[in-house]
Specification:
- By secondary structure, the chain is α+β, with helices and mostly antiparallel strands.
- The chain is built from 14 helices and 9 strands.
- It is globular, with a radius of gyration of 22 Å.
- This is HTH araC/xylS-type domain-containing protein.
- Keywords: DNA-binding, Transcription, Transcription regulation.
- InterPro entries: AraC_XylS_family_regulators (IPR050204), Homeodomain-like_sf (IPR009057), HTH_AraC (IPR018060).
Length: about 325
């Protein structure tokens, strides 16, 4: 049975990660330590063969959107049952190169490695990104079935190395420069890995239900691309514009409005969660072609501009009052 990491092992590991001695990791142990580790990583179905012997050293950093974790820990097993996520729940996605599985309202996307603990019983060096599911850019159905080992593809191998490199980079240094663009790049890459795993084979169906489903999936995956448009979506589905539009004739919103609404939703989340980000960087990160277009659509949807939205939210927080309905819901 693997023993808890010793102090000298933890010190050498931290140095190999690039963390200075004056920034020691959080050290956890035993049953309470295992519970704390599950909570930090976001995976409540990770289990130890002997919880009393569990031990881990953790470096963790919360960035603009994602949370990066690097851990040296004793082996854990994974209860790999996959359950449907709640349709409106704020569940999380974890990309872990060295572990796999899913739990409750969480799923794990493996970007390399094995879903089982190391057979040698050695300590596991885990790098993980905890990403809000609504930022990942894939649909709930794909997420719900993604808690399995991703096939050994070139894209998955690149993603695994990228996850480890990105986590190590932000953990090893005092991050003062904005990381939003890099975080979005990582999210987009992991979106592609999930989409590759969940992609379908065969001819594109011509049924309205299928076209609508695929359109929503494509919007989720690509809304950050400023060039995304109904014409681009029609092309990706191998349909003419006329054929494509016919599948949405009885919808309350046009496809262009669906794209704009998804971008606005992402922008609103970033404005709330990342108050230091400039309005221009938020607009770019969410796929708006220009700052003017972003301001116009935001004001039309929420009844006030993005700067006013952020100011009002700050005033609400300072006063201890919840955000008003005007800052919480689109107008109309």
């Amino acid at each position: 049975m693997t023993a808890r990491p010793a102090p000298d092992e933890i010190r050498d590991w931290s140095r190999s990660v690039g963390v200075c001695d004056d920034d020691p990791p959080l050290v956890l142990g035993g049953r309470q330590g295992l519970a704390a580790y599950r909570d930090m990583v976001g995976a409540d179905r990770l289990a130890s063969a002997d919880p009393e012997t569990f031990g881990a050293a953790i470096h963790q950093r919360r960035l603009s959107v994602v949370t990066a974790t690097r851990a040296l820990r004793t082996p854990l097993t994974w209860h790999a049952e996959v359950s449907e996520p709640p349709p409106d729940g704020d569940f999380l996605l974890i990309a872990m190169p060295d572990a796999a599985g899913s739990s409750g309202d969480h799923v794990v996307v493996v970007t390399g490695g094995s879903p089982e603990p190391p057979s040698s019983g050695d300590l596991a060096d885990v790098a993980a990104l905890r990403i809000p599911a609504d930022e990942l850019g894939v649909g709930a159905r794909t997420l719900a079935t993604a808690g399995v080992l991703i096939p050994d593809t070139l894209l998955a191998a690149v993603a695994a190395r990228s996850v480890r490199g990105f986590v190590s980079s932000v953990i090893a240094r005092d991050v003062r420069t904005p990381t939003l663009a890099a975080e979005i790049a990582m999210i987009d890459m992991l979106s592609a890995v999930v989409a590759e795993t969940g992609c379908r084979t065969g001819d594109v169906s011509g049924t309205t239900a299928y076209v609508r489903e695929q359109t929503h999936e494509l919007i989720e995956r690509h809304f950050r691309d400023p060039s995304l448009s109904p014409a681009v979506l029609a092309g990706r589905l191998h349909l003419s514009r006329r054929q494509f539009y016919r599948h949405f004739e009885d919808c309350d919103r046009s496809v262009a409005e669906m794209i704009a609404d998804r971008r606005l939703q992402a922008a609103r989340v970033l404005l709330i969660s990342n108050p230091a980000a400039s309005i221009a960087s938020v607009a770019r990160a969410c796929g708006f072609a220009s700052l003017g277009a972003f301001r116009f659509r935001f004001r039309r949807a929420y009844g006030l501009g993005p700067n006013e939205f952020r100011d009002r939210l700050a005033q609400s927080r300072a006063g201890g009052a919840p955000a008003s309905a005007e800052t919480s819901r689109p107008v109309g």
